[in-house]
Amino acid sequence: MKKLDDVPKKNIFEVPEGYFDRLPGIIQTRTSASTPSPVGIPSWSRVLRYALPLILVVGAGIYWYQNNSSSKVNVQSELASIGSDQLVTYLDNHELTTEEVVEMVAWSSVDLDDLENTVYSTLDITHPQLEELLDEYDEL
């Protein structure tokens, strides 16, 4: 087995005569040939690389928002055009129980107060009449 010290040392790389003397001049001519863009003015490649995708995303967001908000207005106007009689008919024909409808509605405190005032304002029942009604329900 040979040792590393036994391998002859040859310089297999050759450098042309005066190469390192001319090297600084070659580098300087290459760097001065390309003119850098001024610091304040961005190049078009940067504008296209960063601004164009941003513009596309903003445009898509505006388009989506306009379509989404206009569809909400259409739904609200259509719901407002439906009469109470039509709603009652629909609910009667579609096997929904009162409990299911009540569970689906999000009641606010104002809604509950209005409902309570409506129910109790229509009832002009005296105490003896109320007792009589309660007795009837107890018999059932």
Concise summary:
The chain has 140 residues and is mainly alpha-helical. The protein has helices at residues 19-33, 44-81, 84-93, 98-104, 109-122, 127-139.
Report on this model:
This protein is mainly α and 140 residues long. The protein has helices spanning 19-33, 44-81, 84-93, 98-104, 109-122, 127-139.
Any idea what the shape is?
A: elongated
Describe the sheet with the most strands. Answer: none
- Secondary-structure content class: mainly alpha
Name the poorly predicted regions. none
Query: H/E element string?
Result: HHHHHH
Number of helices: 6
Question: Approximately how much helix is present in the residues?
Answer: 55-70%
First-last Cα distance: 114 Å
| Percent of residues in β-strands | under 5%
Mean pLDDT: 79
List how many beta strands DSSP finds: 0
Indicate the radius of gyration in whole angstroms: 44 Å
Fill in the keyword field for this structure.
69% helix, 0% strand
